[in-house]
Amino acid sequence: MHALIGHFYYWLYQLDVHYFLEVRMHTWLNGLLAMFAVVALLVRVPYSVVAALLALAFLLICSLGSRFARRRYYIHFVPQKMEPPEDPPPPLWPEDKLLHHATGHFHVEDKEGDWTHLIAYYRTFETREHAVMARLTPSFFLRIGMLDPLSLGMWYIFITPEALLAVTPGRSYFGPMVEPALRLRWQRKDEKGRPLEDIAFLHFQSEADLVRVMADLLLDMGGPARRPWRPPRLTTNL
Q: Is it the case that residue 237 has pLDDT exceeding 60?
């Protein structure tokens, strides 16, 4: 069931972010389904009414499903209990970066956007601010849909310890991808500068990567940040 939901969300996301002739593919699908339903009702053939109702039902499912999935950034996340390791890994130093995938609300300069499962690097600066540096690359859907070229490039999420509210381990489902993941509950500001509670997802290739990033996030979650955070100096006895 989880995999089925993940595949459904995946298709909804692709339809929502890809364009054909500068129109979202989801809009094309809704228009074609509505047109098919009208034609089926006008043409008097066996089962035409049933076909029209099925088309309208599919249109409704896709529209409501897209609205529901969009609130979760099209990720089906299943929380899992995880016992803390007896020997937790050290937090990331400022020069460290870890390759993963990221989902959430991103910013870059004067633009912002919601993106799912972007290739990214996770870093933590000396100030203990956590950074997700992601890249949106060109892609095609069903050989005709393409991403908005103006959206391609680097996108960022910055989370301070004070803004991080909760970290939940689990597994994420997105199309064929089932991965260890962290769901971050954090507070950001909307376009009017008002505080807004949001979620983000970090997807990993291994449980070890998940544990390492989770230990780094939990180190000073909620603040105050441990400043500055630098590797200990090596001392030698003369």
A: no
Token pair in block for residue 189: 């500001």
Contacts of 23 (CB under 8 A, 6+ apart): none
Q: Note whether 177 and 109 are within 8 A (CB).
A: no
* Three-class DSSP labels, the chain: CHHHHHHHHHHHHHHHHCEECCEEHHHHHHHHHHHHHHHHHHCCCCCHHHHHHHHHHHHHHHHHHHHHHHCCCCCEEEECCCCCCCCCCCCCCCCCCEEEEEEEEEEECCEEEEEEEEEEEEEECCCCCEEEEEEECCCEECCCEECCHHHCEEEEEEECHHHEEEEEEEEEEECCEEEEEEEEEEEEECCCCCEEEEEEEEECCCHHHHHHHHHHHHCCCCCCCCCCCCCCCCCCCC
Residue 162, token pair as written in the block? 């004070």
- Residue 164, pLDDT score: 97
The answer to whether the CB of 173 falls within 8 A of the CB of 78 is: yes
As a whole number, mean pLDDT of residues 150-159 equals: 96
pLDDT band at 45 (very low <50, low <70, confident <90, very high): confident
Let me know if 140 is exposed, middle or buried by CB neighbors in 10 A (0-12, 13-18, 19+): exposed
Q: For residue 1, what are its two tokens?
A: 């069931």
